[in-house]
Amino acid sequence: MADIIQLLPDHVANQIAAGEVVQRPASVVKELLENAVDAQATSIKLIVKEAGKTLIQVIDDGKGMSTTDARLSFERHATSKIRTADDLFQLNTKGFRGEALASIAAIAHVELKTKQEGEEVGTSIIIEGSEIVEQEVVVAPKGTSIAVKNLFFNIPARRNFLKSNTVELRHIIDEFHRVTLAHPNIAFAMYHNGSESFQLPESNYRQRIVNIFGNRTNEKLVPVEEDTEVLKISGFVGKPEYAKKSRGEQFFFVNDRFIKSAYLNHAIASAFEGLLKDGAHASYFLNLQVNPQTIDINIHPTKTEIKFDDEHTLYAILRSSVKHSLGQFNIAPVLDFERDANLDTPYGFKNKGANTPTIEVDRSFNPFQEEKETRTKPQVSYKKETAGSWEGLYVGLESKSTKTQQDFSEVHFESDEQTASMFTNENEVEQQQSTYQLNNKYIISKVKSGMLLIDQHRAHQRVLYEDFLKNLTVKEAMSQQLLFPLQLHFSSQEITIINQVKEDLEHTGFMFASIHTDSIEITGVPVSVPESEVSIILEQLISDVENEVPDSNFSATDLLAKSMSKSLAIKTGQSLSLQEQEHLVNKLFACKEPNVSPTNRPTFVTMTMDELDRKFL
Length: 617
Ligand code: ADP
Ligand code: MG
Known about the structure:
Layout: H1 10-21, H2 25-38, E1 43-49, E2 55-60, H3 67-72, H4 100-106, E3 109-115, E4 122-128, E5 131-138, E6 143-149, H5 156-161, H6 165-182, E7 187-192, E8 195-200, H7 205-213, E9 221-227, E10 232-238, E11 250-254, E12 257-259, H8 262-271, E13 284-289, E14 295-296, E15 307-308, H9 311-328, H10 383-386, E16 394-396, H11 404-411, H12 416-421, H13 426-432, E17 435-438, E18 442-447, E19 450-455, H14 456-474, E20 478-489, H15 492-508, E21 511-515, E22 519-526, H16 534-546, H17 556-568, H18 578-589, E23 604-608, H19 609-615
Parallel strand pairs: 1-7, 11-13
Antiparallel strand pairs: 1-2, 2-6, 3-4, 3-6, 4-5, 7-8, 9-10, 10-13, 11-12, 14-15, 16-20, 17-18, 18-19, 19-23, 20-22, 21-22
Helix pairs in contact: 1-4, 2-6, 8-9, 14-15, 14-17, 14-18, 16-17
Bound molecules: adenosine-5'-diphosphate and magnesium ion.
């Protein structure tokens, strides 16, 4: 029989290797930035178009390459960084596999210009799908520029798998953060579609963090320093009161290399124990220096995971030094006036301000007249400040309709009536009770065939979700004007995201007076949104947009409705009055799809009499 094994041609092997190295535009960004850092650049510029799908260019002022090296750099296993396998354990460069450029050149159009210090002229090379199509002598500044165009042009399946520009850009910015945070002594700039996204001058570590995440970050940082034989730590953790819902700002660098480590992350989380609100994540920017011989960075092709020889010791040192910093800088739990009020008051009272006792005489009171309409009007949370003219604060965005009253009895849960339930005596309660709340989590409701067990959080999410979706599509949401505009601070990427969803937000009832580069001013919010929750809602929204996994039927409106309903839905643990329970059950079954939450999880389960009977056999 004939021999059938053959060696794969280089360009095929490179394409296969590219599958490991280049998953998305952000992988190219990472490799090019790291090469520029390794080339001892002092200033590095990243230019991106359409989230890297059409162009990723990195320009550095590093040491450049000779003509021969320039050609060789695109060969597989071509590296100037190691010579023997032993060198791997002394590594102080980012790269060493010699695979990145070869992989990138296999799946994109690449233009390289490079010149070494002291040379008169440089080299320009154009490569398409591993083929060198042009090589020239050029006049160029010292350093290297690599432009990667039309990524995955020859692998349509991969190209089609790329996510939306928002998502791909998010990944690129993540990589940019990682490299720029690891090297504050190098100046970086980033441009996307022609406009400047970041301008980071050479600086110290603290300034670098502030330059990336916005001026307001400065006051949030608590320094962490530790110097032991096995481990040196330097950097910052975020003060607990600024902890965010999203996991965004968490960075470990080991020997200047960004790494992910769930284990070390846990060490930080445990140092913060008792200081964070539920669901909040501490921010941290920590540099760990360890002996390169005690780690193995070789275990992952994209090199973000490493193995430590002695993880337990690192864990203990890290935890105790973060704890120490939090203690030293007096970050003990402070009296928290913003603490989640739901914990102390039943849900029905959560938005009601304390009423100043006043004596009022209704001079027009006529006992023979029917009860005044205002008695049954839904109560609004800020009644206190706005007494008398609260209606003036409601502005329909597109239709200043007369449906006002009806509309917000729909969006709001509370009504004066429920106040009564606190005072009704036990007997009465028993008579009318058709629902029962179990462990502040489930509502049990009696139906003919048996009973329903309703998850209160998911059910309310469904109700709010359909409400928001309706508002977003008919664009008729009610807005509640704020007495004082609300100013909120965000980083520049967060502002970019807010700009993207601004119009949709307006359809839900948000009103923006202005959006600056690091803050926004809000003058109106949806009727169902308490002012105190606005920043949490926007944070959650930003984090949802960032982590959005778009599928074929992704839509921004849907995402917004999901995110806001998640933030606003009553939580597990909230106690509900009977009226609220019933109201929720009724609203749920008035929904189009009552069976599932917006994220497709069951909102209730049924238990029929038959099933119950069988349990007693
Ligand atoms: P690695 O970084 O693992 O060595 P790469 O494929 O990323 O492999 O790069 C191959 C080689 O090309 C590098 O070892 C380096 O010598 C050279 N090189 C790549 N980018 C640059 C650059 N921006 N400036 C100077 N040399 C570079
Ligand atoms: Mg490299």
